[in-house]
Design a protein that fits this description.
heterodimer, A: 112 residues, alpha/beta, Glutaredoxin, 4 helices, 33% helix, B: 314 residues, FAD/NAD(P)-binding domain, seven-stranded mixed β-sheet, five-stranded parallel β-sheet
């Protein structure tokens, strides 16, 4: 797994989301999804560049279908941004780095 | 710095051009596109396909994304440079040619256009809010979420029939909706679809509305002959109704046919502008295969190499 990216599973999901000081961007992905592969390196870069402001996490829907169902994920990649334990934003489909940073801008504030 | 060759687009055509240009020591820059969940993305249309069965050299087939990642690695191995972005503007009026990516400008003596084609959508207003909530552009990505559900595929070409067949791995029933009464898909794909008990063919109909607020619940089908409307209850709709070439940037600059496909000199990849070459689906609405795209990408790199050589001695 790439540096700075947290791997979530059904057993670690709630605790990680609820205890995080920063917003958590969860990437719902799977091995068989081409567009997911294309955004993986972009998310790794964002994880390193925005460390401390935002947490980037990955969730394999193939291994954790219950979580995909719980959050109504019907298309991957889907990025869900969790802030204070709640879904604050839903981004469906692969996007370029510029567009992704723009979408995440509101969450990239330096914590006081 | 003026480069020798810039390649715009990174499907089989662009990446084959990159392999050949890199091996010819032209140090190509590949502006590969931006990630998306449509076919307009780095790697191109094969990024959304499953098993590619007809690419020579892979007797057992190969996954589309895997094939494209291999193409890219092969080009990188010989020194091709990659920029994961889309060209946003061009100026081919004088040499060196200029291409912009946002505010950054890149100059090059020659250009290879391999921007491909992107999938058409239905053009319905409901598409906006239902995309990713039952409406999908990527069967390989999203088929998994429709286990034991009834879904539909729109289209009658190879992609539509392949998607319908693939989706029967998950869905309990797949209705293939086509606006004509015959399929355009290849014989082998048609036979496979007809032999598949989970696939039902719905002829002479177009999808005229999608239903559902948070999630797709159904689609209205309109008979093209009688105008009669029927409601099909489905939780998923996959669209594969064809492609349009990615040539908006080149309008008024490069010669194109009425349908937007670039025109190249027969038997070559030359466009109407000296030093600008085109290859792959952006200039081919006849064959549109990975292997023909790759073949024309090779031609473009050789055409560019010889043209650069001649231009130096001119």
């Amino acid at each position: 797994m790439a540096e700075g990216i947290v791997t979530l599973t059904t057993s670690t999901f709630d605790e990680t989301i609820n205890s995080s000081e920063t917003p958590v961007v969860v990437d719902f992905w799977a091995e068989w999804c081409g567009p997911c592969k294309m955004i993986a390196p972009i998310l790794s870069e964002i994880a390193v560049e925005q460390a401390g402001k935002v947490t980037i996490a990955k969730l394999n829907v193939d291994e954790n279908p219950d979580l995909a169902m719980r959050f109504n994920v019907m298309s991957i990649p889907t990025l869900l941004v969790f802030h204070k334990g709640e879904v604050a934003k839903r981004l469906v489909g692969a996007k370029g780095k510029g567009q992704l940073l723009q979408e995440l801008d509101e969450f990239l504030v330096t914590s006081p | 710095m003026t480069r020798q060759v810039i390649i715009s687009g990174s499907g089989p055509a662009g990446l084959t051009a990159a392999i050949y240009a890199a091996r010819a020591n032209l140090a190509p820059l590949v502006i590969e596109g931006e990630p998306s969940s449509t076919s307009d993305q780095p790697g191109g249309q094969l990024m959304l396909t499953t098993e590619v069965e007809n690419f020579p050299g892979f007797p057992m087939g190969i996954m589309g994304p895997e094939l494209m990642i291999s193409f890219r690695e092969q080009a990188a191995r010989f020194g091709a440079e990659f920029l994961t972005a889309k060209v946003t503007a061009i100026d081919f009026s004088e040499r060196p040619f200029k291409v912009w990516v946002g505010d950054d400008v890149y100059e090059s003596d020659s250009i290879i256009v391999s921007t491909g084609a992107q999938s058409l959508m239905l053009g319905l207003p409901e598409e906006q809010h239902l995309l990713g909530h039952g409406l999908s552009t990527c069967a390989t990505c999203d088929g998994f979420f429709f286990r034991n559900q009834e879904i539909a595929v729109v289209g009658g070409g190879d992609s539509a029939v392949e998607e319908a067949t693939f989706l029967t791995k998950f869905a309990s029933k797949v209705t293939l909706i086509h606006r004509r009464d015959t399929l355009r898909a290849s014989k082998i794909m048609q036979d496979r679809a007809r032999a598949n008990l989970k696939i039902e063919l719905h002829w002479n109909a177009t999808v005229t509305a999608l239903h559902g607020t948070d999630k797709l619940t159904g689609a209205t089908l309109t008979d093209v002959n009688t105008g009669e409307e029927t409601l099909l209850a489905v939780t998923g709709v996959f669209v594969a109704i064809g492609h349009r070439p990615n040539t908006d940037l080149f309008k008024g600059v490069l010669d194109m046919e009425d349908n937007g496909y670039l025109i190249t000199w027969p038997g070559s990849t030359y466009t109407n502008i000296d030093g600008v070459f085109a290859c792959g689906d952006v200039q081919d609405h006849t064959y549109r295969q990975a292997v023909t795209a790759a073949g024309s990408g090779c031609m473009a790199a050789i055409d560019a190499e010889r043209w650069l050589e001649a231009a130096q001695h001119a």
